[in-house]
Amino acid sequence: MTLVLAGYYGISIEEAEELKKDKSREDDVFPVIKPVVQKMASIVKGFLTDHEVDRVYVVGGASCFKDFESTFEKELRITTVKTNDSLLVTPLGIAWNAQPQSL
């Protein structure tokens, strides 16, 4: 997403990353990155082939866009849910699965 925004607006990666996170610019940003979200959903759809799935949960920073889950759901044709704490899930999962290192 960041690369697409940098290319579209002709700005640096750092500027594009900040633009992506700016909630006040979401209506300008999402149409530009929507094809990336559609591609992400397409990849997930490929992994779900031959599996009976009635619901998909999306997490992470990208899912913070208000139209993210509806875009995913349209591509997947599977109910798509954004969690309440989508930014917390990844670090929580990492912490949960971390094994203490033996000395």
Helices and strands, in N-to-C order?
Answer: HHHEHEH
Could you tell me the mean pLDDT? 90
Number of strands: 2
- The tally of domains stands at 1
The CATH class is identified as Alpha Beta
The CATH topology turns out to be: Nucleotidyltransferase, domain 5
CATH superfamily: ATPase, nucleotide binding domain
- Helical content band: 55-70%
- What overall geometry do the principal axes of the alpha carbons give? globular
Largest sheet composition: 2 strands, parallel
What is the beta-strand fraction?
5-15%
- Estimated structural class: mainly alpha
The strands making up the biggest β-sheet line up spatially as 1-2
Q: Report, as a whole number of angstroms, the end-to-end distance.
A: 40 Å
Please, how many helices?
Answer: 5
- CATH architecture verdict: 2-Layer Sandwich
Radius of gyration: 16 Å
Unreliably modeled segments? none
